[in-house]
Amino acid sequence: MIRVLLVHDVRILRCALAALVGREPDMTIEAAPAKDAVRLARSQPTDVCVVDADVTGRSPLDELAGLSRKSATRSVGPSHRLLVLVSQHCPGALRRALDAGARGFVCKDALPEQLVTGIRQVAAGERFVDNALAGTVLRASEVPLSERELTVLSAAAEGAPITEIARRLGLSTGTVRNYMSAITRKTGARNRVDAIRISQGAGWL
Question: Angle between the 147-157 and 162-169 helix axes, to the nearest 10 degrees?
């Protein structure tokens, strides 16, 4: 059986996707919001973590990716491989997931069967990229910001102050300020608000 952990913050969508995957005879699924994802992944065997890209700015994607990297060094046990649900119009979210080590990408506009196919391929140790995301993958390679910079900027776009961003990400306030300076420079922005505007306009956030 393929053991799936579905991470999505919208309850109605989380339940609907869990019901879809749960119908498959070779899959079992646990669904949770982002705040509970790492605890569940650590407490129970998980082969594939399906994560909604829209919650990766706030969710512990780095920690899930860390579990995946640790499991890759073991010959037995759960693999915690990452498969991300992403929009065609969000190359920044796809870039964050790529940098985190995601093995699969399913377009949010895809048919439900694509998600099931993606889970099976990622569980088998293969990579899976939805054909609809081919152009998004190419644009993701052109995003000038790193995964961490995108995560910092995403939190800033939600209105979080420097101290809150630092607390969420386990960083010092000075480090967050350094990231914001680098973001402003790389985007050619005048300030943080301008950097958010530019990044949202380009689809990086």
Answer: 130
Sign for the pseudo-dihedral over CA of 77, 26, 85, 39: negative
Provide the whole-model pTM.
0.71
What are the residues whose beta carbons fall under 8 Å from the beta carbon of 103, sequence distance 6 or more?
68, 81, 82, 83, 122, 126, 127, 128
* Site of tokens 């919650």: 55
pLDDT tens-digit readout, 132-175 = 898 888 788 788 998 889 889 989 999 999 999 999 888 999 99
> CA-to-CA distance for 128 and 87, rounded, in angstroms?
15
Return the structure tokens found at 134: 């081919």
